[in-house]
């Protein structure tokens, strides 16, 4: 298997992610991915959006939920995105990386952070989940980060 830091493109990085999602799925649990704005929408600032997203993941993990955590992939995604697209939003991240992960069948539910309405990526993830039969729900209130 390719190590995360050795992935040369989004397809290779997605294979690493699918392996991790498969391991979680094989625990016979519902595997949830928390979706929220990163580069578009949300708090209007990528750093603040990522901090809020991470806080939601931490709260959900503390509540005992099985979460597919995308944070370990962020640095490599930024590196690969810079090679593909000079724009803030990179459609290939959705079309290659997340499409592969969602199509694997190992992510069984998406939880959507409140305030995601203006996020292009979240809107695309919701559409993709619908096409693939993945359940989409609002993030439970007890996993919603408290505003700073």
Overview of this protein structure:
This protein has 148 residues and is of the alpha/beta class. It has a single domain (4-143), classed as Hypothetical protein PA1492 (Rossmann fold), CATH 3.40.50. It has helices at residues 10-25, 46-62, 74-84, 91-103, 120-132, and strands at residues 31-35, 66-67, 109-112, 135-138. It has a four-stranded parallel sheet. The termini are far apart.
Distance between the termini: 40 Å
CATH superfamily: Hypothetical protein PA1492
Q: Which CATH first-tier class would you pick?
A: Alpha Beta
The CATH architecture is: 3-Layer(aba) Sandwich
- Gyration radius, to the nearest Å? 14 Å
- Summing up helix and strand content along with how strands pair, one would put the structural category as alpha/beta
Task: Name the helicity range.
Answer: 40-55%
Indicate the low-confidence ranges by residue numbers. Answer: none
CATH domain topology: Rossmann fold
- In DSSP terms (H or I, runs of 4 or more residues), the helix count works out at 5
N-to-C order of helices and strands: HEHEHHEHE
| Strand numbers in spatial order across the main sheet | 2-1-3-4
Q: How much strand?
A: 5-15%
